[in-house]
């Protein structure tokens, strides 16, 4: 028997399970399980990616200068406070490694990006999970669980799998109730989709305080999940500290080039945002008319709760959709829920037709 054992935190974890991508016997399923953009990336991003092939024999720019400055220009931010990474996932892990010690408490909401939980446990932290209320992050529940050992707090805003968000005032109330020694990480992976005027991303808090970080990604509205590229906005002290353990070339050249072109194509991004909003409103009305509860979403996905009183369930609905060549994703920790990404018009219509048939069956 091997005497080699992983650290105790790793042994507590179950492997991350990706969204399903195939259906046996179906050659081209409608994949709506991973909140990807069915529109794909900007044509400018594709062109930049192809052009980058000419420099594959060179290391990428470890300073990430051009992408950081493109992000800063589009969002009116300070480029020196931006770090890019191998998806926002790596940046979350980087913050956990920098600021969370074994025995510290990590405060998280009931839902959110599961990798945040995984990174904290692997680091040796104690997870403290706050329940949510009405499918929304409950700031009161989070603050009730703050202790002298709380060193890390993270929420996804908008949240996953609910698609809901908390307002800027609630975000500030959460921060005000945390110790100054606690890092608040705001995971804004779906920020580009939000149209509600009460929403604020985390950038203003980063400008005002030394213990707030905002993470963003190019995997959602920008359509570049395969390239694994994301970014974080951080106080300068956080940039310096995290930079000490960031690997020299943690973002590859083609990803940097494509992401720069994608974020600068603001017209393309705006069209996708508008299409997503119109689609969600139509889907919400259609699904609600079927007798299915649908949680109002500000993202590119929606969460449904099927009526148990009618003998309907999320698992049965998922199986029915798969029989029609559609891949959804179970969610919510209950058999009554199902999460589906917003797709192209014809994909959304295929989902609605299948759901109508399932509810009539």
Structure overview:
38% of the residues lie in helices and 15% in strands. With 361 residues, it is an alpha/beta fold. The protein has a seven-stranded mixed sheet with strand order 2-8-7-6-5-3-4, with helices on both faces. Helix 5 links the parallel strand 3 (105-109) and strand 4. The longest helix is centred in the last third of the chain and has 24 residues, at 266-289. The termini are far apart.
Topology:
Elements: H1 8-11, E1 30-31, H2 43-51, H3 65-75, E2 82-85, H4 87-99, E3 105-109, H5 114-122, E4 126-130, H6 139-144, E5 150-156, H7 168-176, E6 183-187, H8 203-208, E7 212-217, E8 230-233, H9 236-243, H10 253-264, H11 266-289, E9 293-295, E10 301-305, H12 314-323, E11 326-327, E12 329-330, E13 337-341, H13 345-360
Parallel strand pairs: 1-11, 3-4, 3-5, 5-6, 6-7
Antiparallel strand pairs: 2-8, 7-8, 9-10, 10-13, 12-13
Helix pairs in contact: 2-10, 3-10, 4-5, 11-13
């Amino acid at each position: 028997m091997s005497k080699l054992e992983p650290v105790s935190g790793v042994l507590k974890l179950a492997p991350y399970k990706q969204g399903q991508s195939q259906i046996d016997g179906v050659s081209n399923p409608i994949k709506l399980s991973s909140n990807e953009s069915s529109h794909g990336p900007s044509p400018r991003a594709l062109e930049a990616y192809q052009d980058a092939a000419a420099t594959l024999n060179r290391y990428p720019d470890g300073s990430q200068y051009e992408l950081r400055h493109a992000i800063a220009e589009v969002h009116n931010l300070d480029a020196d406070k931006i770090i890019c990474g191998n998806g926002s996932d790596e940046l979350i892990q980087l913050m956990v490694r920098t600021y969370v010690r074994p025995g510290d408490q990590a405060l998280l909401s009931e839902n959110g990006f599961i990798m945040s939980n995984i990174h904290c446990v692997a680091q040796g932290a104690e997870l403290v999970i706050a329940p949510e209320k009405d499918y929304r992050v409950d700031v009161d529940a989070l603050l009730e669980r703050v202790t002298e050992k709380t060193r890390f707090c993270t929420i996804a805003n908008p949240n996953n799998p609910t698609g809901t968000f908390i307002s800027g005032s609630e975000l500030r109330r959460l921060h005000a109730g945390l110790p100054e020694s606690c890092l608040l990480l705001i995971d804004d992976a779906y920020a580009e989709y939000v149209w509600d005027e009460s929403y604020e991303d985390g950038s203003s808090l980063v400008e005002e305080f030394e213990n707030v970080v905002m993470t963003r990604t190019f995997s959602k509205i920008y359509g570049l999940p395969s390239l694994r590229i994301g970014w974080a906005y951080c106080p300068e002290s956080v940039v310096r500290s995290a930079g000490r353990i960031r690997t020299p070339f943690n973002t590859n050249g083609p990803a940097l080039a494509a992401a720069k072109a994608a974020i600068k194509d603001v017209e393309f991004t705006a069209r996708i945002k508008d299409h997503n909003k119109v689609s969600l409103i139509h889907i919400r009305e259609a699904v609600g008319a079927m007798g299915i509860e649908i949680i109002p979403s500000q993202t590119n996905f929606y969460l449904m709760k099927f009526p148990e009183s009618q003998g309907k369930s999320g698992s049965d609905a998922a199986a029915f959709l798969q029989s029609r060549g559609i891949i959804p994703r179970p969610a919510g920790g209950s058999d009554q829920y199902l999460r589906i990404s917003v797709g192209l018009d014809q994909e959304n219509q295929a989902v609605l037709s299948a759901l109508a048939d399932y509810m009539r069956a």
